[in-house]
């Protein structure tokens, strides 16, 4: 028999009754039932119940074991009594009558409990992550992550992609966040950067004649953490294709993502054909470029109903400024004054003056609008709003006014808040869509200049002609995001592969030829020697896993995460280094001035 185990703690079944076995694992819990000791023994695979009564030769050893001790147990497989069968456990019909218990390792008193998984302070969970990972839910989340990544690889192979690894030590690249810099010992005073993404390398792979590339790529960004973005590092399903247009990429990757979701959705519906939504349409309908399509609320412009109306606040704004629009946010079942007041109060807490509203109710056999706005604009305009949105008695509509560029995000938040308050969101499905036609440039108000809105390597729609003859702020990019349930889970674009177009695009953003050659020398040089039209995208592995396992924080699907302050409490990073290490690198620390 094997030194430590003949079976795992999940393997034994009714058919094994009468056999002698050896199991090893951790003590999940110990129960004393009238002098008979029951030990739940746990390993990576599952649980098996161990029994030791006073007649067992292992009873004396069983009396002293404690939670999370590591044991090796020899015993006989027996059938459980009918009343003791546990149908929720794969091993629930059997138990092991212990003949011998060997203590392989003892555990000190636990700083956090493993059994039962009660809520516990995050700093303790992260400091003792090796214990936290023994908990069933987190342990299974990590295993599910492994399975999902394996499926991603299989789906990419089915689509004829090849997996290539790209360098970790590279040059700094403007991906929109701060780089993690690595000082060079050989070239003192110079630095490598950890890749924010393999953007330039995957394009260079296309320059090298490889047609389809992918990898599960580690990426590093020195940015502030939040629930759906960990500090430091993350992983993405990175890919690139040659001789393709935008639709080729969307049509190739859509079944990959759909199949991954369907395999792990546990029966929840998954969108079969992903809707394509232009960026400006998404902003007007949903107030965000990451729309949650499970939310049935769709915003529409209602300016005409308030122009010249008796509601002087809106009417005056419309008259004074042609940029002003009034957007309506229709809310089914929201037609009570109490709910409308709560929404108004919420808006004020967001720093807004409030939310105008109308709600409808039955009065004397007909629908009537209620609230201050209804009284001011009159029955005809109120009815027109009702009909525009297809509302009924018991429904409401909220209104925001001003320049849409300034209020769209708030309107989107109001849409989400209203739907959550009225429980309108179907949380038992995965709703996916593409957001396309992103703006190529945007205006930087602080620096009074034009800058890239998103990825500077994307191809502008219209190419060189658009760059030379169009207002930069009206140019669209061949760029697209994949969104699921309000989360951006992938982003990509068709690349700008022509050197003269690349230079012109960067020139508009304020970078001259010398700067482009200095910062993107490898890529720019490759474009001079026959660059195929190409494009790609990157899907966030962490966010996809988070959605599929139903977690609300990336820490629940990441093996060894940092905390919110970007500190690894388990390993003690970041940490001080020895002066000899700094000397080897030609570095000297400058003390931080204290206030």
Walkthrough of the structure:
By secondary structure, the chain is of the alpha+beta class. It is built from 18 helices and 22 strands. The strands form five sheets. The protein has an eight-stranded mixed beta sheet with strand order 6-9-10-22-21-20-17-11, sandwiched between helices. A five-stranded mixed barrel has the order 1-2-3-5-4. The N and C termini lie far apart (68 Å).
Q: How many β-strand runs? A: 22
Helix and strand composition category: alpha+beta
Contiguous helical run count = 18
Termini separation (Å)? 68 Å
**Computed Rg:** 30 Å
Helix content: 25-40%
Low-confidence stretches: none
Question: What order do the strands of the largest sheet run in, or round the barrel if closed?
Answer: 6-9-10-22-21-20-17-11
Globally, the shape reads globular
Q: How large a portion of the residues is in β-strands, by DSSP E?
A: 15-25%
| Oligomerization status of the protein chains | single chain
Q: How would a textbook summarize the main sheet?
A: 8 strands, mixed
């Amino acid at each position: 028999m094997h030194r430590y185990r003949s079976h795992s703690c999940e393997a034994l079944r009714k058919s094994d009754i009468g056999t002698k076995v050896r199991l090893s694992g951790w003590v999940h819990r110990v129960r004393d039932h009238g002098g008979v000791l029951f030990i739940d023994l746990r390993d990576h695979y599952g649980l098996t119940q161990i029994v030791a009564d006073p007649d067992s030769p292992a009873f004396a050893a069983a009396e002293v074991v404690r939670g999370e001790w590591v044991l090796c147990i020899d015993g006989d497989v027996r059938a459980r009594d009918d009343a003791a069968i546990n149908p929720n456990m794969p091993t629930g019909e059997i138990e092991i009558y212990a003949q011998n218990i060997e203590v392989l390792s003892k555990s000190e008193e636990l700083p956090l409990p493993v059994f039962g998984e009660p809520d516990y302070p995050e700093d303790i969970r992260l400091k003792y992550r090796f214990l936290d990972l023994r908990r069933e839910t987190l342990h299974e989340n990590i295993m599910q992550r492994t399975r999902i990544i394996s499926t991603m690889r299989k789906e990419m192979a089915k689509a004829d992609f090849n997996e290539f690894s790209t360098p970790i030590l590279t040059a700094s690249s403007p991906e929109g966040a701060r780089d993690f810099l690595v000082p060079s010992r050989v070239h003192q005073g110079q630095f490598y950067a950890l890749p924010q993404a393999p953007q330039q390398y995957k394009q260079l792979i296309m320059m090298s004649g490889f047609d389809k590339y992918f990898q599960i790529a580690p990426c590093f960004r020195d940015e502030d953490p939040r629930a759906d973005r960990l500090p430091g590092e993350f992983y993405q399903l990175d890919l690139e294709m040659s001789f393709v247009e935008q639709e080729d990429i969307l049509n190739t990757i859509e079944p990959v993502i759909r199949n991954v979701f369907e395999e792990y959705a546990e029966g929840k519906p998954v969108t079969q054909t992903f809707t394509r939504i232009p960026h400006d349409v998404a902003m007007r309908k949903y107030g965000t470029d990451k729309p949650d399509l499970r939310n049935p609320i769709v915003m529409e412009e209602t300016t005409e109903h308030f122009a010249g109306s008796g509601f002087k606040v809106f009417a005056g704004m419309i008259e004074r400024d042609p940029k002003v629009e009034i957007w309506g946010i229709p809310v089914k079942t929201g037609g009570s004054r109490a709910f409308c007041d709560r929404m108004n109060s919420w808006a004020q807490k967001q720093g807004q003056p409030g939310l105008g509203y109308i709600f409808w109710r039955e009065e004397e056999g007909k629908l009537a609008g209620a609230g201050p706005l209804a009284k001011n604009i009159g029955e005809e305009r109120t009815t027109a709003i009702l009909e525009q949105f297809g509302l009924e008695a018991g429904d409401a509509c909220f209104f925001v006014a001003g320049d849409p560029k300034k209020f769209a995000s708030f309107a989107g938040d109001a849409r989400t808040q209203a739907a959550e308050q009225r429980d309108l969101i179907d949380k038992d499905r995965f709703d996916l869509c593409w957001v396309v036609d992103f703006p190529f440039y945007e205006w930087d108000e602080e620096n009074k200049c034009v800058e890239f809105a998103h990825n500077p390597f994307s191809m502008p729609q219209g190419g060189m002609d658009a760059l030379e003859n169009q207002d930069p702020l009206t140019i669209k990019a061949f760029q697209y995001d994949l969104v699921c349930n309000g989360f951006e889970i992938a982003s990509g674009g068709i690349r700008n592969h022509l050197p003269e177009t690349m230079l012109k695009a960067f020139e508009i953003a304020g970078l001259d030829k010398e700067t482009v050659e200095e910062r993107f020398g490898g890529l720019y040089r490759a474009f001079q020697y026959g660059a195929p039209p190409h494009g790609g995208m990157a899907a966030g592995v962490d966010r996809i896993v988070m959605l599929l396992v139903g977690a609300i924080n990336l820490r629940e699907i990441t093996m060894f995460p940092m905390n919110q302050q970007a500190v690894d409490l388990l390993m003690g990073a970041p940490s001080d280094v020895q002066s000899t290490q700094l000397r080897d690198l030609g570095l000297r620390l400058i003390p931080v001035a204290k206030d």
